[in-house]
Amino acid sequence: MTVYDLVALGRVGVDLYPLQHGVTLDEVRTFEKFLGGSAANVTVAAARHGRRAALVSATADDAFGRFVHRELLQLGVDDAYVQTIAGGPPTPVTFCEVFPPDHFPIWFYRYPTAPDLLITAESIPMQAIREAGVHWSTVTGLSQEPSRAAHIAAWEERGRAPLTVLDLDYRPVFWTDVHEARRQVREAVHHVTVAVGNAEECEVATGETDPELAARALLASGVELAVVKQGPRGVLAMTADERVTVSAFPVDVVNGLGAGDAFGGALVHGLLEGWDLERILHFANVAGALVAGRLECSTAMPTTAEVQALLSDVEVADGAM
């Protein structure tokens, strides 16, 4: 059986992004279709760095589902664990508006549910999850059953092994109640060793609005590495004995929606390489910045060479740290 560097569990679908920018969705004339979904994007991002990655998810038996499977394979991700569910909800689509540099409204068409929220504990590849170098999951998967139970079963199979990562990825639209989201997320962090999120997502997980206090609260829950993304203010990462902050990498933003997933895939690569924390954060920041400077998410994910070319400008190129 294949042993993967990364097995991610969670959202997949199709992004329909506008080719006219600076206008609202009702005025957009044309769109382009891309593979989407946070967990899927992270697997693509890791694959661009040469990592053997697999996605655990589901699509419908429809045209967009076939597109998802084809794109995953073309982008270097194993789709063997992406189920096809017939007779249920359609493969979801996501629309956005593009108002650079910092306004990107997004609409998820996945109501009342989506195939990736119908995965069950019995249907996921426990051995692949247990043996993977990194297991990545997102908070979205906790928003409904049976997906929530599947996530918990996967974590129990991992037994809080190193590099069990939770992307805090809180999207209010997927939850009926923020208090329920807080309860589920705060329980989930007890199953993982790495937590990654922006300031708002970390506040949901910890109740703390200050990034440093949020990171400390995540560590107190048993997480070994807490990463708090702060947008233009950079990123903070903490372990029990280390605190690292790295400034944001400047970029002319086109669409900021995929930057966090690029950061995640680069984080996976750096952790597996065993780099020191500062180097990992510089690498992940540049990867995120590259995607923010492009329209799409999945197909915009940079290669290691692209990231290193920019890292050389800030004197953190391979071998210099």
Features:
321 residues; 22% strand; 9-stranded mixed sheet
Extract low-pLDDT stretches: 316-321
Mean pLDDT: 95
Main β-sheet description? 9 strands, mixed
Strand content: 15-25%
Oligomer: single chain
Write down the Rg: 18 Å
| Helix and strand composition category | alpha/beta
Tally the beta strands. Answer: 13
Question: What is the count of DSSP helices, taking H or I runs of 4+ residues?
Answer: 10
End-to-end distance:
36 Å
Query: Judging from the principal axes of the Cα atoms, what is the shape?
Result: globular
Note the run of SSEs as H and E: EEEHEHEEEHEHEHEHHEEEHHH
- The strands making up the biggest β-sheet line up spatially as 5-4-1-8-9-10-11-12-13
- Measured as a percent range, the helix fraction is 25-40%
Short synopsis of the structure:
The protein is 34% helix and 22% strand. It is of the alpha/beta class.
Describe this structure in words.
The protein has 321 residues and is α/β, with parallel strands linked by helices. Helices cover 34% and strands 22% of the residues. The protein has 10 helices and 13 strands. The protein has helices spanning 38-48, 63-74, 126-131, 147-158, 178-188, 199-206, 211-220, 259-273, 277-292, 304-311; strands spanning 6-9, 13-18, 31-36, 53-60, 77-85, 93-96, 106-109, 134-138, 164-167, 194-198, 225-229, 235-239, 242-246. Strand 4 (53-60), helix 2 and strand 5 (77-85) form a beta-alpha-beta unit. Helix 1 (38-48) packs across helix 8 and helix 8 runs antiparallel to helix 9. The longest helix has 16 residues, at 277-292. It is globular.
